[in-house]
Amino acid sequence: MAGYVAKRVAQSLLALLGVSVVVFALIHLVPGDPVRTALGTRFDQELYEVLRARAGLDQPLVVQYFDWLFRALQGDLGVSFRTGQPVTEALMQRLPATALLAVSAVLVGLVIALPAGIISAVRQGKVSDYVANAFSQIGVSIPDFWYGILLILLFAQTLRWLPPFGYTSLLEDPVDGLQRLIMPALTTGVVTGAILTRFVRSSVLEAMNSEHVRFARAKGLPQRHVFRHHVLRNAWNPIVTITGLQLGTLLGGIVVVEVVFAWPGIGRLALTAVERRDYPVLQGAVLLIAAAFLIINLVVDLLYAKLDPRIRSS
Q1: What are the helix (H) ranges across the chain?
Q2: How much is the mean pLDDT over the chain?
Q3: In CATH, what number does 99-265 get?
Q4: 96 to each of 101, 109, 119, 245, how far by Cα in Å?
Q5: Predicted confidence (pLDDT) per residue in 162-200, tens digit
Q6: Where are the domains of the chain?
Q7: Considering the entire predicted model, what is its pTM?
């Protein structure tokens, strides 16, 4: 097991290195000069040259990359061109908000998808199956920002039950923080639930139609026992996989929801960095998202050994 973990960690580090190369190259190919953008109307040629030299932008691209990589390995992701704030500090300030929203959305999605997918699989071809499939199709087809706008109109503007936007840490004010979390979590959770419902349904159906389940039924075992110990136990692995992938995707892919609800997350920070050509912030944000995604995949792989003894023995 230790050898497998070491191998997966090494693969993740190589993948992260590849991501850093691609991101660094693509960001520097984007048109626009970040120093000139930062100076704006206060442009002065002498100051411009000084700031470019200070940021290392006067060096060849390869030199810039290895200099950035060497500092990144020490935890220094540079300084924002616009604010002067260390990138690592900016990311750590935004990470709790993004992680809270992503985890909450996945939990909402699982609360929706597990019963909907299981009932749809067990009652295949019945009304409940068609309803679950219709929900999944609608949930995937409609953009998440549309759900967000509808929730704001209903709960903030009409009923006035919840604040329309903003973020409050749950540690500072749990009540206000929870109220501000509900609508963004529901917005992303409905879409996540629609996606997960399909996979839960197909995974349960595949397990129900397997040979060992048919054999267990032929032996006369109670239906509940068969479903709990043979169907669900074999259906968990694909569900865990797609749940982990959804969590990783949400950590870097909820930019629109963060903008709609003025949620101070990493996605919104990365979007602002793109608009401002703030290279250090954008590189740091993408690297952090990629690292989180790889860590989640590693954790999912390790969970397989707990869920399936066959994987542990192999």
Answers
A1: 2-29, 34-39, 45-55, 61-73, 87-122, 127-141, 144-151, 174-208, 211-218, 223-226, 232-253, 255-260, 266-276, 279-307, 309-313
A2: 84
A3: 1.10.3720.10
A4: 9, 20, 35, 19
A5: 998 889 888 889 999 999 999 999 999 999 999 999 999
A6: 99-265
A7: 0.84
